[in-house]
Amino acid sequence: MTMELPVVLVLWFVFSLTVITNGDETIDLPPCDYSAIYNFGDSNSDTGGLAAALYPEGPPSGETYFKMPAGRASDGRLIIDFIADNLGKPYLSGYLDSIGSSYGQGANFATGGATIQRVNESWFQNGVSPFPLEIQVEHYTQFKDRSAYFYKETKDECLRKRLPNPDGLSKALFTLDIGQNDVAFGIRSLSLEQQKTAIINVVSQFISQIRVLYERGARAFWVHNTGPIGCLPVTHAKVKDPLPGYLDEIGCVKDQNDVALLFNQQLKVEIVKLRAELTNATLVYVDMYAAKYELISQAKNQGFEDRFEICCGYHGIDYDVWCGNKGNVNGTEVYAGSCANPSAVISWDGVHYTEAANRWIANRIMNGSLSDPMVPISRACHKQMPVS
């Protein structure tokens, strides 16, 4: 006797699969059942780490969604928040934030100003975080070991719910979004030839930390490359009477973007090599640069104002008044408050993106169309994936 599945259940199963073509081969990928999300990065994905460890962002940050400062360099949510939404997970608590945090379905080790490279004392004067990627990975290791101990030892069910089940580690998604500060530091302090050498070393350190995460149980990696630094409004605001060729066709500083592209090219090469080494891992390389450049170049077609508009802050050739601060602009004291409509502006403070821009970028990357392999984030745990 055979049992037939209900029609509704059959249809649900069929349409829950993602069908990907690899040459003549068709691969069906069911949704991944991620146990948690663990994120590593800089201010582009910091949800409260640096604010808890050092000085928090003040008003008007957080005004759009959280209605108060929420440890994010934006008026609202970041790309990592929209990723969590997409995967049915709560917003990630910063590992360094002990107040009101829950880590049952993930944790965020990112901190604003973080680099891939190890830092020294002089870097701190340039706003670099004391928590580079190596330290973030060490924080993860401490978190993994200590949470596993307390999860097994405690009889407090409320505490257990706030901690990850150690048996689900291999089913977690590990997201990494870091490198922008390394590239920016090189642009400020090194010649072009020195930057090329530095990029090789920086990417090598990046790859070595992915190896460490793999050795400590990570299996599914979603790795963002770095964005178009030369398109940041704070960079554009410093340009005066540029020579021909200094800016690209949309007004971005071409040399700075070229360095970011060199970093991305090297990162992709090394990720491809790493796939052959870490045979039980899935490594998805995500072209964040392409997504951000597309948004910036098509700003008005996508419902945004001028691509170099800044919502909160004043920046010029010889002055910077950062969001939420007072300062002097051409002899007049000003307060850098929020613009009237942040949802119509791409840049929040000249460096970071508004919630509206972060939502646009997240939607652009999560479907996998800008990834290698071209797989949506909801299916990024599968080993059998086509690679471009």
TrEMBL record:
Matching InterPro entries:
GDSL (IPR001087), SGNH_hydro_sf (IPR036514), SGNH_plant_lipase-like (IPR035669)
Q: Which organism is it from?
A: Erythranthe guttata
UniProt keywords, alphabetically: Glycoprotein, Hydrolase, Signal
Q: Has UniProt tagged this entry with the keyword Ubl conjugation?
A: no
Q: Which PANTHER family match?
A: ALPHA-L-FUCOSIDASE, ZINC FINGER FYVE DOMAIN CONTAINING PROTEIN
Signal peptide limits: 1-23
One MF annotation (Gene Ontology) recorded for this entry? hydrolase activity, acting on ester bonds
CDD domains, per this entry? SGNH_plant_lipase_like
> Per the similarity annotation, which family is this?
Belongs to the 'GDSL' lipolytic enzyme family.
Name of the protein described by the UniProt record: Uncharacterized protein
Q: Does the keyword Glycoprotein apply?
A: yes
